[in-house]
Amino acid sequence: MSRLWALGLSVVVMALLVACGGVKEEDLDGANARIELLKSKGVPDNKLSDARIRLYSAREHQSKNNGAQAKKAMDSSMVFLAEAEKFYNEQVATLGPKIDASLKTARDAKASLTGFQVKKIDSIAGVVDSFKKIQWLLQADNVATELVALLPALREDEQKSNSIRRRVPGQWVFEDRAKSVEHKEVNALTRKVFHFQPNNRVYLVESKKGQSGPYLREDWEFRSWGTYDFKGDTIMLIINRFQSFKQDFHRIHMVDGKPVWKHEPQPVYDSAITDGSQDRSITWADLTEDFKRR
Questions:
Q1: What does the mean pLDDT of the chain come to?
Q2: Are 114 and 191 found together in one domain?
Q3: Which of 47-56, 105-114, 281-290 bottoms out in mean pLDDT, i.e. has the lowest?
Q4: Does one domain contain both 78 and 122?
Q5: How many domains does the chain have?
Q6: Are 138 and 123 contained in the same domain?
Q7: Judgement on whether residues 184 and 288 belong to the same structural domain of the protein
Q8: Within 10 Å of residue 172's Cβ, how many Cβ atoms?
Q9: Fewer CB within a 10 Å sphere, N or C end of the chain?
Q10: Distance in angstroms between the alpha carbons of the first and the last residue of the chain
Q11: pLDDT tens readout for residues 201-243
């Protein structure tokens, strides 16, 4: 009798151990790592959600010492994870040639494009190449497909660029004089002169002189050098040198109850620009509306 009792007890203990044992923490972490790896490689969420839900359930059951249910959920998660990995491997087998074909289409299109249209293709194609290099082919394919879809818009931008390319070179001048009915003393001239050279060099002179408010007089001039190119009907200015040629300001301060003009000059400097901080753009419509050609 005691032998049967001992045998029964051992069976119960083994059952409890199985029920409580469930799954190992490292197995849960390993499955999660496999899911995250597939996600990083571009596998869509709808292919991973079943495996992720079952894995979450397995972790919850395990935390409550419900080993049998944890193992069941873990086994189910592994089935869905295997299906997701199979999906990725089957996609990878066919994506390489498809990506290469998309890149060839885009790079062939460069022959008829210029300026920022070419830069756009090079930039996106560079992203595709980077993904290919680390074997993230689903993401590479997504970006390559978007690049091909962008080509009609880039061709349209090229037509807009061609329509203004020969009309931009020359000297363009903007002038605006600030006046005030309330403050008759206000009278300041803002002036911008854009020199677009035929060799795609650009030289800008921007200045303001006069009393611009009741308490402020300005006399400053900034000069910029660089190149220009076209993005559709927008002129892109790439500035590589910026000079604060003059910065003289006068402000009114109250001294002994009386307004006194004080000279407050600011430092002048001449700097090489390498971070794009002075880059700007102007549309052809704004150039012809706000500036006069001289």
A1: 90
A2: no
A3: 47-56
A4: no
A5: 3
A6: yes
A7: yes
A8: 20
A9: N
A10: 116
A11: 999 999 999 999 999 999 999 999 999 999 999 999 999 999 9
